Amino acid sequence: MQTLPLRLRPGQDLRASLESVLADHRMSAAFVLQGIGSLSAAQVRFASVSGTTAMHGSLEILTLAGSLAPDGAHLHIALSDAQGRVFGGHAGYGCIVRTTAEILIALLPDVQFSRLPDAESGYRELAIRAVRPPGGA
C-alpha cells in the first residue's frame, strides 16, 4: 500500500478529481481513507433513493471514504450545512470544492478493482483481483 495525501482546490469536482487519481498514478485500485474540507455545492444520493439531491451553500465535509476503480468510484460523504444539520450518502458528480478538500488515499499496486453487476444487490459491486505488481516476479 502506498499512501497519497491530496489537496483539491476551489472549483474542482470532488468525485471527478478522485476518479482521475488512478489514471494519473497508473493504478487500478485505491481506497479513500478519509477526507475533510468544504463544498459550495453537493450532489448526494441518499439510501434507497435512485437520484441525487442537490445541496448548495457553505457545506463542511465531515468525512469522506470509499473505493476507487478504473470504471467508477463508490464514495460515502457526510456533510454539515451552515445550521449544523448533518446529511450523508453517496457522493455524486457536482460536489464542488469551496475552499479546500484534504484527502488521504491508499493506492493498492497489487490489486485490481472493477465494478460488476451483482444479482443479489442489483448494483454494480466491487470485484477484487490480485495482480502482479509492476516489475514484480
From TrEMBL:
<dbReference type="Pfam" id="PF03479">
    <property type="entry name" value="PCC"/>
</dbReference>
<dbReference type="InterPro" id="IPR005175">
    <property type="entry name" value="PPC_dom"/>
</dbReference>
<feature type="domain" description="PPC">
    <location>
        <begin position="1"/>
        <end position="129"/>
    </location>
</feature>
<protein>
    <recommendedName>
        <fullName>PPC domain-containing protein</fullName>
    </recommendedName>
</protein>
